[in-house]
Design brief:
Largest sheet: 6 strands, antiparallel
Number of helices: 19
Number of strands: 23
Strand content: 25-35%
Shape: flat
Radius of gyration: 44 Å
Strand order of the largest sheet: 5-4-3-8-7-6
């Protein structure tokens, strides 16, 4: 057989293998490139979606305040708009901003084009002749989780129109939505960069796919280089690994120690190698009084001696450190033990951490047991631990409390009529989701008596799984006091409004009228709307300013004033002659002034008429 024929079949096999490899590489690269393009677009989609979700999270408190009725809708919208205007950021994806629109088509917040705010863009058409704003509104209303809209818009500071992708998310409570956009031009640019990088890599990968061809031509050289590199890597690994590696002979002498071990112990090569290190880096005697040689013999000859152990050793500086050792018996070509290889990992930090955790656990346990609030731990619906205050609240020993279902200590129904078990399951579910729960709960003791408690329920991370910590405080007496105070306040309000005397409650600092009873409204002609928030001065209630000044001067000096006679003015301008009394009260959690007005106009007229009659009588006789 000629040399050409001898080479033909091996070359043919190599060529066929090369064609198969190139084909496989091309198919793999094509799929990989398509996946990269899809992944790049998904990353941008997720990026703008996350921006909008984060924006909505940042205004969640304002929305919640509006939902609870503590914030008017106009104020809530104003606060959300103010936050959205500041949501402009420049990151690795370019300039990004959040805009806000209303369901009626008005643009509420547009940071980069503020002149368009509060204008209706309902009829605005993009480069595709589509009503982009209507698409935004329709998507936000239709999809509670938000959605994407394709449209076109001008490039920043340019008249050129480019296609954009916008993600919008509705805020149905405020009849509005949040959104942000990105130009497809930017996505395409990044995809082109990725493809360009992929093409460069493909050359390398193509070369790697063709490596079998080159390996077939230079196997011996490649194998020799591989073995040489393997030896270098092994030596580097042994010398630089962050573990102490020691080879012992059967007499306990060190045959080899890596560079890390020398640095770790602080001893030189001469001090450690070919000598016994008993008393240098390890104790000369073990816990049972055995020597280092005896300990090595035990590991070599006795299979039941653990190959993994921890020991405390001393460095040259005198520092006591802990090492976790893994010991392997070395054998010669005949299978007989020839020494031992020990690999030690520094455990000092872990030991210190464990000690700190133990101390922390002891401190936590002390706090847990001595806390003034009742505390118990719930796992899978059952009570697994409780402090002294908790068992005292329920009137049972800890042995009869721990291990019982938490639902056992609640009546069938709560104060609001809810079924205790259903309501408790919902609260536990929220707490397990990581949302702390604070609520009032009606508990039932073993003797059947009930008590009301303020409860804080929180998730506690634990190695055994998700547990809940319930902190309870008996508020039965507090609730009774609150109820008594409410009844007193109701009686006061009733007496105030039904009094035949005109009465006002006034702020002592500004003299603003906080409350007026119906008698005052009827007697002066002012409505409740006229009076509320006004002062007696702005109402022109006093006929003489000097009398008003004297009245408040006496009140400030003495803290009260009684039977002060003065002339007041009705809304229609007529006069009221009144006897005034004022004193301090505590109303709605604040110190206020009670202003009592007794109308003596008729009595004053009768006195004046009598005086006039007496004068006429005197003149006649």
């Amino acid at each position: 057989m000629t040399p050409g024929k001898m080479l033909f079949y091996p070359i043919l096999v190599i060529v066929i293998n090369a064609v198969v490899v190139i084909t496989a590489f091309y198919l793999s690269f094509d799929k990989w490139a398509r996946d990269i393009l899809t992944e790049t677009e998904d990353q941008y989609n997720n990026h703008i979606r996350q921006l909008v979700l984060l924006a909505k999270d940042s205004v969640a408190d304002t929305i919640e305040s509006y939902k609870q009725g503590t914030l008017p809708k106009d104020e809530a919208l104003a606060r959300v708009r103010a936050k959205v205007r500041g949501m402009v950021n420049e990151d690795s994806h370019g300039l990004s901003y959040i805009f806000m629109g209303a369901y009626d088509g008005r643009m509420l917040a547009l940071p980069i084009e503020p002149h368009k705010e509060l204008t209706s863009l309902w009829d605005f058409k993009d480069g595709f002749e589509r009503h982009a704003i209507r698409e935004f509104v329709r998507t936000a209303q239709k999809s509670p989780e938000g959605g994407f809209v394709r449209h076109s818009y001008y490039l920043p500071d340019s008249s050129v129109v480019r296609e954009k992708l916008t993600f919008v998310l509705g805020i149905p409570e405020l009849d509005s939505y949040l959104g942000t956009s990105i130009y497809f031009q930017q996505i395409t640019h990044d995809q082109q960069l990725v493809l360009a990088s992929a093409k460069k890599r493909s050359l390398l990968y193509g070369f790697l796919f063709l490596m079998p061809v080159f390996l077939a031509l230079g196997y011996v050289v490649a194998r020799t280089l591989e073995l040489a590199q393997s030896k270098v890597r092994y030596e580097n690994l042994v010398q630089n690994v962050s573990s102490v590696i020691i080879e012992w002979d059967l007499d306990g002498n060190v045959k080899f120690i890596n560079d890390y071990g020398k640095r770790f112990f602080g001893h030189s090569h001469r001090e450690l190698v070919e000598s016994s290190v008993a008393g240098i880096i390890v104790s000369p005697f073990g816990q049972n009084g055995d020597t280092l040689k005896q300990r090595i013999d035990a590991i070599v000859t006795q299979p039941d001696v653990p190959a993994h152990l921890e020991s405390e050793v001393t460095t040259r500086s005198g520092e006591r450190v802990w090492l976790a050792w893994t010991n392997t018996v070395l054998r010669n070509t005949e299978g007989a033990p020839s020494g031992m290889l020990s690999v030690g990992l520094d455990q000092t930090l872990r030991k210190k951490t464990d000690d700190a955790l133990i101390k922390s656990e002891m401190r936590y346990r002390s706090f847990f047991l001595s806390a003034l609030d009742g505390i118990f731990i719930i796992n899978n619906g059952s009570i697994v631990d409780a402090n002294n205050q908790a068992v005292q609240l329920f009137g049972v020993p800890v042995t009869k409390f721990v291990g019982t279902p938490a639902a056992q200590w609640s009546p069938e129904y709560q104060e609001d009529g809810a079924v205790s078990r259903e309501k408790e399951n919902e609260l536990i579910r929220r707490a397990l989701d990581g949302v702390p729960q604070r609520y009032e709960w009606l508990f039932q003791r073993q003797d059947g008596s009930l008590f009301l408690a303020d409860v804080s329920l929180n998730l506690v991370p634990h190695a055994d799984g998700q547990m809940l910590r319930a902190s309870i405080r008996d508020i039965t007496e507090t609730r009774m006091a609150q109820e008594a105070l409410r009844q007193v306040r109701e009686r006061f309000v009733c007496a105030f409004h039904e009094s035949p005397l005109m009465m006002l409650i006034i702020d002592p600092a500004s003299h603003a009228i906080i409350e007026a009873n119906d008698t005052f409204v009827a007697g002066t002609g002012h409505s409740h709307a006229d009076v509320h928030g006004q002062t007696d001065e702005t109402l022109c209630l006093w006929k003489e300013n000097a009398a008003r000044a004297e009245f408040y001067e006496t009140l400030a000096r003495d803290g009260k004033i009684q039977n002060y006679e003065a002339a007041l003015v009705r809304k229609d301008g007529s006069n009221i002659y009144a006897m005034l009394t004022a004193y301090g009260i505590h109303y709605s959690g604040h110190n206020e002034i009670m202003f009592v007005i007794r109308d003596i106009t008729e009595r004053r007229r009768r006195i004046e008429a009598l005086s006039e009659a007496q004068e006429k009588f005197a003149e006649a006789f």
